[in-house]
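Data deposition worksheet. Section B asks for the primary sequence of the deposited chain exactly as it was used as input, without tags or linkers unless they were present during the calculation. Section C holds the resulting structure in token form. Section D is free text for depositor observations; keep each observation to a single sentence. Incomplete worksheets are returned to the depositor.
Section A, Depositor: J.P.
Section B:
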Amino acid sequence: MKNKMNLLEIVTLNKHSDFEEVLFTSVLSYLLNPKYEHGLNKLFLHSIVKEAFPEITESEMVDAQVCSEHPLSYLGKDMGKVDIFIRLGNKAVGIEAKIWDRSARNFSSENEPQLFRYCNGLSQECNDKDIEWRLIFLIPSVDSKICLEEFHKILNNYQKNVKLMTWISTEPLPPESNIPISCFIPKSIWDKIDGIFKESGTKRVDVPLNTQWVIDSLLETIPEIAEVAVIPGRFPNKSTLEELATWPIFSSLFNAGKRWPISLHTAVGIPYGWGNDRLQYRGNSLYRIRTVTKFYTDVSDKKKYLPQDNVELELWPEVYEACKNGVLNWLKKFGLNEMAITTSRHVDASEKESVRLITLNKNINVNIDDVEELNTILREGFRTIANNT
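Section C:
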């Protein structure tokens, strides 16, 4: 049973059509608008705008205006309404949000894709007034296939103006997506909301209780978006793992790594870092958390291969060797030794990739601080290897 009342869960109990999408974008509009009495002032707004315009100054933020459902036109024709429009002096940011992958495929009566219409409309409105503009396309996750396809349609004409952002980070942007790194915002909306107090110096108690409630509701609800927004898969998602005795360990790992499982993958990749802290080595993947004990093809086998008794972490072999002493000292905290480390293969269809496997029994108490300590140890090993290659 949940300990806190979730605002978003309450107001979507009798959901229908795309009501949830309207609700989530409305909450974003509220938190982004400094004129509302949420107590955040421009904290959240500045965090998002910096992703579109890294060089933005405080003086340009002073007269920021946030408008919901901003109408756009191009050559006299109605182009629709972008979810959120932010004006900052001679700069502007539009945000178009999707929480369902399917809703990204939106065409006009003349068969023009939604994102292309919005870019045309923003281009005309802003260029005529000598305003530099960006459009952030906010999608469920990097596994949102339709969203990625629609984003590709605007890259040829508007690559320097558009950014891709996710509600929830489940995996790094896959190389096969062919989306330029310059167009991808690695920190998700969840990351941004979670960092409101951690990175700003503002204390949680300094904002109204209602705002705290909204933020807590978002942080609890957003990870569930990735579970239902993409094509269903056969592997465990968050709600499945929550039923297991191993869930407390999974919960600490996911929350520390700011990554959650979806049913398309057998493991959750934890990144080495974000933004300027990324490393190209091993695709920026620090390690992986298995959500199944064995790869399977028939969804009816899921229950058989759920991690009921242990949680397994896949480490890169060379990274483990580079920080072996640190990892073993970490294991000692839980009464474990080198026997908890085995040689294995990554759980996928090919099972070709060699890994070192840490096995944590369900009875071990692993909290977020413990996980962050392990992550720090592995980052040291990661840096050692990456710097020598």
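Section D:
The first strand starts at residue 65 and ends at 74.
Residues 209-229 form the longest helix (21 residues).
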